[in-house]
Design brief:
- One of its GO terms (molecular function) is phosphorelay response regulator activity.
- The protein has a five-stranded parallel sheet with strand order 2-1-3-4-5, sandwiched between helices.
- The protein has two domains: 3-123, Rossmann fold (3-Layer(aba) Sandwich); 127-228, Orthogonal Bundle (Arc Repressor Mutant, subunit A).
- The model is unreliable at 126-130 (pLDDT under 50).
- It has helices at 11-23, 34-43, 60-70, 84-92, 105-123, 159-169, 178-185, 195-208, and strands spanning 3-7, 27-31, 48-51, 75-79, 97-100, 134-136, 139-142, 147-150, 153-155, 175-176, 218-221, 225-228.
- It is globular, with a radius of gyration of 18 Å.
- It has eight helices and twelve strands.
Length: 230
């Protein structure tokens, strides 16, 4: 059974999320404290983690950053904080999605299903041709094993970063706007969250490029979007 960790200090909201997940066949566990939530996230076998930002002990940003450094698991931030900067921080720390309170429980379940499905596709190597690696200069991308190498040195990407990279690498020399990339990769409408595209491109560059300020793979086409150059 799919297991979900809910780190939320409001008992009513946490129980509401747990009940809706149960209705859809998911098993959910609740932690009301930041430190306890991080400990469970790192020690438990969870398929997806939902984080509030304002938590006692340790905030959701810190938890997200620590989890992402050690695990590749979908992370959804659910928070009353609706500032664009908070969303950018969340994505920058490795969150896959940002849901603003008050939220529709059905929407949260739908987003959860979408992220679980995408992670499962990458774990099973079902994206692109599973037997064919992509070789672009010093960069090698293997869709089936979800591995990336630069100068034969492996580079770790999150599932979402990997999905962005594979999509752009398999559509070389084409310009995609932020809106197009958001639609292609995230696959649903989420007001204001288009900032995640910029954050993910920046993180990919930091991991792949010798000089991220002068990228050789994913270039910025000012006023238009991004282009993967081969």
């Amino acid at each position: 059974m799919t297991r979900i960790l809910i780190v939320e200090d409001d008992p009513y909201i946490a129980e509401l999320q747990k009940d809706y997940f149960a209705l859809h066949g998911y098993e959910a566990e609740i932690c009301h404290d930041g430190h306890a939530g991080l400990s469970r996230a790192l020690s438990g076998d969870f398929d997806l983690i939902i984080l509030d930002i304002q938590l006692p002990g340790m905030n959701g940003f810190e938890i997200c950053k620590t989890i992402r450094e050690r695990l590749d698991v979908p992370i959804l931030i659910v928070s009353a904080k609706n500032e664009e900067l908070d969303k950018i921080r969340g994505f920058g720390f490795g969150a896959d999605d940002f849901v603003t309170k008050p939220f529709s429980p059905n929407e949260l379940v739908a987003r959860t299903k979408a992220h679980l499905a995408r992670y499962e596709r990458y774990k099973n190597g079902q994206k692109s041709d599973p037997d064919e690696s992509l070789h672009i200069r010093e960069l090698t991308i293997n869709p089936s094993s979800h591995r990336v190498f630069v100068h034969e040195q492996e580079v770790f990407l999150t599932a979402k970063e990997f999905e962005v990279l594979v999509f752009m690498a398999t559509h070389p020399n084409r310009v995609f706007s932020k809106d197009q990339l958001f639609e292609k990769i995230w696959g649903y409408d989420s007001n204001g969250d288009i900032a995640t595209v910029t954050v993910h491109i920046s993180r990919i560059r930091e991991k792949l490029e010798a000089d991220p300020s002068n990228p050789q793979f994913i270039e910025t086409v000012w006023g238009a979007g991004y282009r993967f150059t081969v």
